[in-house]
Amino acid sequence: MNLADGQNKSREIMMIVLRLSLLRAFAIGAAVLLSAGGTAVAQAPATTPLAYPSPQLTLAEARAIIDGAIAYARGESMRMAVVVVDHAGNVVSSDRMDGAGLQNIRFAEGKAFASALYRQTTQVLGELYKTRPDRYFGILNMYPAKVYLVGGGVPLALDGVLVGGVGVAGLPEGVDEKSARAGIEAWMKSRATMKK
């Protein structure tokens, strides 16, 4: 065997070793990718989104409250805004009568939110100014631009369980709450007819 043959043989052996090393590296890389891919698939989000729970207060029920409150205001020849929120204070539905002040929808939302959150009328919460100013101002500071502690907000409950709140704004003092209660009465009547 001459020197040239020895060098060729040596190159062949090195090429074989190199190929084997590359194949081994490729096999290890593929195994790592497959195992990582399996983890990624296991962590992938569900293809169908999770369903929300059934609402405790439906849109149809909120509309019944709003329609009742508006009917009361119309009967008194007055204009106002009304908002219905769920138990967490999120708006379910709202309306502002033609000619009612633009700010009234925000005031009504603040009343509805406060009545649902604190499970009391906003008239009672507003009285805290006189009896417990620390609590009154604490509420205002905890929820800036979110609560309005003036009469007209009433919590909504079914069988002793809070389901939301209604707020009415734009009517004279004391009349906001009467309108809200008229809406609640209309809601209760509609619930009674739905059960029959």
Supply the key terms.
alpha+beta; 2 domains; four-stranded antiparallel beta sheet; 6 helices; 4 strands; 58% helix; rod-shaped
Question: Could you explain the architecture of this structure?
Answer:
This protein is α+β, with helices and mostly antiparallel strands and 196 residues long. It has 2 domains: 1-47; 59-195, Beta-Lactamase (2-Layer Sandwich), CATH 3.30.450. It has 6 helices and 4 strands. It has helices spanning 3-43, 59-75, 104-118, 122-131, 133-142, 175-195, and strands at 81-86, 91-96, 153-158, 161-169. A 4-stranded antiparallel sheet has the order 2-1-4-3. Helix 2 (59-75) crosses helix 6. The longest helix is centred in the N-terminal third of the chain and has 41 residues, at 3-43. The model has no long low-confidence stretch (mean pLDDT 88).
